Amino acid sequence: MKKAVLIVVALTMATACGSDPTDPLAGFQPQVNNVTDSFQLQATDVTDVGTILQYSWLNTGAQASVDHSTTTAAGSAALVIKDASGSTVYDNGLAPSMNEDTSAGTAGAWTIAVTLTNYSGTLNFRVQKK
């Protein structure tokens, strides 16, 4: 009985920590804040990751502001944002310091895709309704 309780407690603690072994950023302290009209992703000291991360984000407006604060030590990180109709409204590499707007699009569920190619560094960007 004690063994079963310990296993349940251990599983509960692992789930509570948010550790997802299928997330390629799991070992790099990823923080994703995805709420209506505001999206932010940060992952620290990422090392040699190649993947595509995709998120659905609710934007009640027709445009958004993209704030970059990414440090790239190796490889590349690209950001593509599509509006609710599937049209690309933003396509650019993540940069150390940049703030620019998406083009106008359709409000609703937007798609945010981050493509990492042999990426090492610290990811940090925010997308907010404009």
Account of the 3D structure:
This protein has 130 residues and is mainly β. It has a single domain (23-129), classed as Sandwich (Jelly Rolls), CATH 2.60.120.380. The chain contains one helix and seven strands, in the order H-E-E-E-E-E-E-E. It has one helix at residues 2-16; strands at 31-35, 38-59, 64-68, 71-82, 88-93, 98-101, 108-129. Strands 1, 2, 3, 4, 5, 6 and 7 form a seven-stranded antiparallel beta sheet that branches. Strand 1 (31-35) and strand 2 (38-59) form a beta hairpin. The chain starts with a helix and ends with a strand.
CATH fold-level label: Jelly Rolls
Rounded Rg: 17 Å
Which residue ranges are poorly predicted, with pLDDT under 50 across at least 5 consecutive positions?
Answer: 1-19
Total tally of structural domains: 1
Largest β sheet strand count, sense and barrel closure = 7 strands, antiparallel
Structural class: mainly beta
Separate helix tally: 1
Coarse morphology: globular
Which descriptors apply to this entry?
7-stranded antiparallel β-sheet; disordered N terminus; mainly beta; 130 residues
